[in-house]
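for the writeup, i need someone to sanity check this before i put it in the appendix. the sequnce is what the collaborator sent (i think, or maybe the updated version? ugh). structure was predicted straight from it, no edits. if anything looks off just tell me and ill rerun, i have time this weekend
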Amino acid sequence: MTDNDDAEAAGGIPRPVQDLIAQLRGVTEKLAGLTGLSGFAEWLPGMAALPSMPRPAAMSAAQLRAVTSSVAAQHRSIEAMQAQLQAFNEQLTVMEEILEPLTEWTTALANLEKRVINLSSGPED
């Protein structure tokens, strides 16, 4: 579906016209409320048949709430990743602390093994 299809999905009325109708409807309702008139739709045949459309400010507010919620969720996700990286970094630090003496011990054992082998084979001439 293209943007034009989306714009004309509500009864074949283009999106800008839908927005204009919504604004006109809002103004008419406010004027009717100020004058104390009710049932203005009966005076304007076809007005009641027009599709009901959301107000642009309400749509913008909803969109901003969605974006704000998404940004907050991404921020929480980053905080969780930072906590995971911190835990992983601590694990690596512990692993290094274990491996350093093990490496020294293995090196010393290899040197001892080399000396023992040299002693058992006798002096070389």
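The mean pLDDT is 78. The chain has four helices and no strands.
thx in advance!!
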